Amino acid sequence: METRSSLPFADLKGIVVDLPDFITFLLNGLLLGGYYGLLATGIAIVFGILDIGDVAQGGLFTLGAYLTYSVTASLGLNYFLSPLVVVPITAGISIVFGTVVYRRLKNYGIAPTFLGAVSLLIVLQSVIALIYEERPKTVDSPLVPGTVRVGAARIFSHKLLVIAAALLLALAVWYFLKNTRTGKSLRAVTENREAASLIGINPARATVLAFALAGGLSGLAGFLTAPVYPITPFAGRLAVLKAFVISRLALGSIPAVIAMSLFVGVAESLASGYFLGELGNLIPFLLLVVVALVRPATIGPNESFRTRNSSSWRISFSLPGGKAVAFIAGLTVLAVPFLFDLPSYFIHLAISAGTAAMAVTGVDLLYGYVGTPTLVQGALFGVGGYASALLTAQYGSSALFALAAGVLITLAAGAFLGVLGVRTGKHWTSFTFVMTIVFTITMTNLGPLTGGPSGIPGVRTLTLGLPGFGQLVFNPFGDTRGFYLLVAVTLGFVLLLKHWLVSSWFGRSLKAVRENEILAESVGIPTALYKVLGFTAAAGFAGAGGVLYAHYVTYIHPELFNFVSSFEFLLMNRLGGLGTLTGPLVGPAFVLTLEEVTRPLSPYLGRILMSVLLILTLLYLPGGLVGFLKRTAARVLPGSYVEIIGNEGGDDGNAPASSGEAGDHNG
Description:
- By secondary structure, this protein is mainly α.
- It folds into two domains: 32-247, no CATH class; 317-644, ABC transporter involved in vitamin B12 uptake, BtuC.
- It has 25 helices and ten strands.
- The chain has helices at 19-50, 57-74, 83-105, 110-132, 157-179, 181-191, 193-198, 203-225, 236-249, 254-276, 283-294, 322-339, 344-367, 377-395, 399-423, 428-445, 447-450, 480-503, 505-515, 517-522, 527-553, 563-576, 583-598, 605-620, 624-636; strands at 8-12, 15-18, 147-150, 153-156, 315-317, 456-457, 462-466, 470-474, 555-556, 642-644.
- The chain has a two-stranded antiparallel ribbon. Strands 3-4 form a two-stranded antiparallel ribbon. Strands 5-10 form a two-stranded antiparallel ribbon.
- Helix 18 crosses helix 19.
- The longest helix is centred in the first third of the chain and has 32 residues, at 19-50.
- 50% of the residues are buried.
């Protein structure tokens, strides 16, 4: 006898599809599609105006939800009055982001602007966490009754409000753009900025309007969904990343954005309910990967990379002893934490900086020498860590075997991603960014293998058997100096390998690809192969750091290797100095020291400062800290020790490089 209140209406391959459940999943999918659509509509408008993937709208979505909480809970006002506060604030902040940050970064290409958008997302959500803390907040819905019946199912009535309001708002924006004079002017700027200027349309005014619309829609999305989900400072990240993907897949067409949002929302809800669970979150990202591989030209213009030339690349030093003295000085610096009895706090900082420096060295091989920023290094760092943690847990592997196996597995992953990335054309940054998200979602939901969101606790210590010495145990708790020695030796090997690579024919070919890819191909350099090889080598460096990091912290979980980690590695490289041997050391040391110094004040303050520093570096310090130090040393040292290659010029120059990112390529 059937005990359920309603009978199943389909049975496919053993999956019982219950009518009330199906209706619930369908409505939840429309709910997801509704607020994805609001976010994606704003992002699509901004992308059409400035070719910017404005993921910072996720922070404005979160801010909209928190402002709604403040209006209702703190001020005691009616829920429906919240937009009077939410929309002006979120629209105003969006205008500031667009006119103060994005328009200036746009002079240096799409990719640097995207990095600026990620920076602003992290800044905004970290400021929200600083103000409101991480404890979830809730907003009561004013709708009565609280639940309503839809067919055979019951659903939270506020969800129906969100579905209806989101669709009406998106359609209203589409009507505004299609039928009003102001909207047509905005569309004209989207289609051809120069032609629009010639017929009297003010592009600057259209840009302000685009950012105001995007920010207002993001704030409204936060307002509408505040009573549906608990509000947390970082809740908007995954939603805005999906909206960013949807806006790229829909090619900026508002009707297509609405249709794609609803499709993704419903597909995600049904797949999660019946087949994939939380892995349903992968659907929009895998769709973008497939489209990028099959039809890369359809997801937007190629990502360009330009910056002001740094004068520091022309500076060369002729010091007594030459490179040998510099090499010995570098080894001495690496040996200091081992040779002297420093407090354990400094040893910890040195180990953390050393493992990060290996990943950053890989970033620099791509960003500094090939000219392509990568945002997947954090995931590759995690691949090495997970591989070694699982091998030592299952087989009790030695230090050398765990390190070698972790690096080899990461090399294989890097080669696979490199082959896929080359096929996407010049959408490398977006592709690597999406793959980091795919990695995090996958690792979070492979519970039997990775421990899921709980991760892998109690990662085993590394051991190394040497003839005559017995078993050496690298215990991060019992002998931090010994563990640092292992990190320093591995880092030294990574730096030497990178120096050999960039000084060889391989490195010269990478630089040729960076300077002019078409010219490099014309002289017989297989550019696609060299990009894949460069990406593979960079992955191996990240894998080595990930192995040591996992066995140092002895507990790993997916959130340690999310897109924020990848962003931090790229930030360390950009801040330290592109195309240098020492930049990947200076960047991690500076950033991690800043994090540790600010941590007693707030765990979020360091990330706020780092993200702001990246934007300032992109705008004002193209040579990074190493470039700044080189220019300072050139002014202090006697002229006989300093050689200026080529035209000395002025400060950092004003002309963008013709292609690639100009960095300090002799440092």
